[in-house]
Amino acid sequence: MTVWSAGPGRPGLLAPMGVHPDRRGRGYGRAVSLAAAAALRELDCSSALVCTPSASVGAVAACEPAGFQRLPKVRDRRRDT
């Protein structure tokens, strides 16, 4: 997992990640997500966000056990038809 900081007092971002299906359910995703959030805390970020498509089951499953809450979908791009 990769983290990005916008600077002290600003939100930080966790890059989406997933855990291989053979390794799920062992707490690896939760542990990595918590470590990434701790790294953002050390960088003095005000909060931690994860932006990933809701269809990315592995990424969502890795972050929710670490306390991240699923929020309503937000579309940042669209194509007019």
Task: Indicate the low-confidence ranges by residue numbers.
Answer: none
Q: State the helical fraction.
A: 25-40%
User: Using only CA atoms, what is the Rg?
Assistant: 14 Å
User: How many individual β-strands?
Assistant: 3
One letter per element, helices H and strands E, the order comes to EEHEH
- Overall, the morphology is flat
Q: Based on helices, strands and strand pairing, what is the structural class?
A: alpha+beta
Q: What's the average pLDDT?
A: 86
Instruction: Tally the helices.
Output: 2
Q: How are the strands of the largest sheet arranged? A: 1-2-3
How far apart, in Å, are the first and last alpha carbons? 36 Å
Percent of sequence in beta strands: 5-15%
Q: What does the main sheet amount to?
A: 3 strands, mixed
Textual characterization of the structure:
- The protein is of the alpha+beta class and about 80 residues long.
- About 25% of the residues lie in helices and about 10% in strands.
- It has a three-stranded mixed beta sheet with strand order 1-2-3, covered by helices on one side.
- Helix 1 packs across helix 2 (about 55-65).
- The longest helix is centred in the middle third of the chain and has 15 residues, at about 30-40.
Question: How would you describe this structure in keywords?
Answer:
single chain; 81 residues; alpha+beta; 3 strands; 27% helix
